[in-house]
Specification:
- It is globular, with a radius of gyration of 14 Å.
- Strands 1, 2, 3, 4, 5, 6, 7 and 8 form an 8-stranded antiparallel beta sheet that branches.
- A hairpin with a 2-residue loop joins β7 and β8.
- The chain is an alpha+beta fold and 152 residues long.
- InterPro entries: CheC-like_sf, CheX-like, CheX-like_dom.
- This is Chemotaxis protein CheX.
- Keywords: Chemotaxis.
- Pfam families: CheX.
Length: 152
């Protein structure tokens, strides 16, 4: 998989979290994941179809996820679990959409499914492809999170 594929995901992540949660995020160097264990305890996944088939996922630790939701909703959090699930799904959907626009510039026309959110320590990510995932670690004032994607 070309390293250029990471650029639209990095750009989309910075844009969406800046616009929705007033966060300045910094991307670390992308790497190839060797396992399917999530990097956080809250993960949102989107299946990708079109010119390529694959999976897009973002995993947050609990404190980072709650911080981002509070930034988005203020102190209007009523049900932490439900609000975190909804917000992480929506953030992942927005990042996926923006990244897919950037991937068009690289010659890929892709569609994304509705996000699924998984919560719990040490959960696994089920990729829709046999390819290894590329992981991009991010940090911000909220904490750390990891974006992963893979395509056949």
């Amino acid at each position: 998989m070309s390293p250029n594929l990471a650029k639209p995901f990095i750009s989309a992540t910075k844009h969406v979290l800046s616009a929705t949660a007033a966060l300045e995020v910094v991307a670390g160097p992308p790497y190839v994941k060797k396992d399917k264990i999530a990097c956080g305890c809250v993960s949102a996944l989107i299946g990708i179809t079109g010119d390529k088939k694959g999976t897009f996922c973002i995993s947050f630790d609990k404190n980072t996820a709650v911080y981002i939701v509070r930034q988005m909703l203020g102190d209007a959090i009523e049900d932490v679990v439900q609000d975190v699930q909804d917000a992480m799904g929506e953030i992942t959907n927005m990042i996926s959409g923006h990244a897919r626009v950037g991937l068009v510039d690289l010659g890929f026309k892709l569609q994304g499914s509705t996000p699924s959110v998984i919560m719990g320590d040490n959960h696994s990510i089920s990729y829709r492809t046999s390819a290894r995932a590329i992981a991009i670690p991010f940090s911000c004032q909220a904490g750390k999170f990891t974006l992963e994607f893979c395509f056949d």
